[in-house]
Structures
1.
Amino acid sequence: MTSVSSASPLAMATAPTVTPDRVSQVTPKTYPNYKVIVLNDDFNTFQHVAECLMKYIPAMTSDRAWELTNQVHFEGQATVWVGPQEQAELYHQQLSRAGLTMAPLEAA
């Protein structure tokens, strides 16, 4: 039986090499953000939409909720929150269960 010594070309060819330049070029990948979008409909009132936004979207002020509600009405939709997928799914589900018409989540 023959053995391969550590000095053989075969052993050297299979050893991985990492140069410092390659290591410094690695950039971490971030998770994508997702948009929560409310759509206009013919049955939710302005008051209900604004109240839902204030109730379910963190740090939503009354003024901002009314701006977004007007945007939903006059432009047909408004992005009411952008952030990590898990939180976006939660806010989307809460707003949907409250009766708002929602667009599917989409990557930002």
Note: The chain is about 45% helix and 20% strand.
2.
Amino acid sequence: MAPREIGVSPMYRILKKAGAERVSSESAEELRRATEDYALALARRSVELAGHARRKTVKAEDVRLSARPA
């Protein structure tokens, strides 16, 4: 399995902030996986937008535009 970029502890905190009384380790792991998958897809779209603008630097605007619902 590939190493993960995001720790599992923040996932527990996010689930608790969302109102969970108790959080299973499986739910925290699944949220981490889903979050990383979404973040990677968002980053790829952001890089693509920067490329279309003929820039090598990804800017905040690229990320904001990538995060918009289609």
Note: Residues 11 and 31 are 6 Å apart (CA to CA).
